[in-house]
Design goal:
mainly alpha; 8 helices; flat; disordered C terminus
Length: 293
């Protein structure tokens, strides 16, 4: 089996991302004394990013792209974008839960600080990989290498974070308005995930309708749905007339991580973020010309 190794900025960026993510989870596991769901999530982010990057590196090293059961025009950049978002989330969550207010931890604190630093470096490396791999104007590329494709990755990731915040504890079952918001998050997440899977699996040509037209119609629908959720969620969580509370409880200052009120606010902010992402997606999708698989 021939080994194909061409030195390029993309190669060195992947190697750096792989090393940084490996160091981050190795130090955290070895000396950081990581416990709880937040710690497990951070370890997963780093380990998953390392393993996926190693897989991509080995496939390209041995020239196995043609034998891969996925579209190699779409898979590496899709994974790199997810890895960047995963490492970014770990870079935020890890210090929030394991460095916030911590003093006198000695070597344990040092391990945690270094893990955070390498997590940030891994995030930068993965973002650099996405920047290098994304389609340039006039370039023939897979859909996931274009701006709308990368936006789909961001949209699904933000939706996953929203799901985490509204399910621990469950906060969407108090009234029908919040259940409506939950349905918006689920519908848009599922459709965006289906689009990503279709592109990676090179199945877009199997649809009974033009894929580009479907993308534009879906983006318009998602913008309308998220606009409504952006309005409804704050009203029924922070307006006292609707059973909400606009004032942050005092105990939130001493709680480790995010308290319940903080999570509600985070969902409100992330809903607005996803609305902006879908709006940008709609603008790009309406004028983008790409070569589908």
């Amino acid at each position: 089996m021939a080994v194909v190794l061409h030195s390029s900025p993309l190669l060195w960026t992947r190697l750096a991302a792989m090393i940084f993510s490996c160091v981050a989870f190795s130090l955290a596991v070895h000396g950081g004394r990581i416990v709880g769901g937040a710690g497990d999530w951070c370890i997963f982010c780093w380990a998953f990013s390392f393993a996926g990057t190693l897989l991509v590196f080995l496939v390209e090293l041995f020239g196995l792209q043609a034998r891969a059961p996925v579209s190699w025009k779409n898979f590496p950049i899709t994974f790199a974008c997810y890895a960047a978002l995963l490492c970014l989330s770990a870079s935020i969550i890890f210090p929030l839960y394991f460095l916030k207010g911590s003093t006198g931890y000695g070597d344990i604190g040092t391990y945690r600080i270094v893990s955070t630093v390498f997590s940030c470096l891994a995030t930068i490396a993965y973002m650099s990989e996405v920047s290098i791999s994304k389609a340039r104007p006039g370039e023939v590329a897979g859909y996931m290498a274009t701006a709308p494709g990368l936006l789909k990755v961001c949209e699904t990731f933000v939706a996953c974070v929203i799901f985490v915040f509204i399910s621990d504890p469950v906060v969407y079952d108090r009234n029908h308005a919040l259940k409506y918001c939950m349905s918006v998050y689920c519908i848009c997440f599922i459709l965006s995930a289906v689009i990503i899977v279709l592109c990676i699996g090179e199945c877009t040509g199997c649809l009974p309708f033009p894929f580009a037209r479907f993308l534009s119609a879906y983006a318009l629908l998602a913008v309308v749905l998220y606009l409504s959720a952006t309005i409804v969620w704050p009203i029924f969580n922070f307006d006292p007339k609707n059973g909400g509370s606009k004032d942050r409880p005092s105990h939130c200052n001493s709680d480790m991580g995010l308290c319940g009120w903080d999570k509600l606010m985070a969902v409100a902010v992330l809903t607005g973020v996803n609305f902006v992402l879908y709006l940008a997606d709609l603008i790009y999708s309406s004028r983008l010309v790409f070569v589908s698989a």
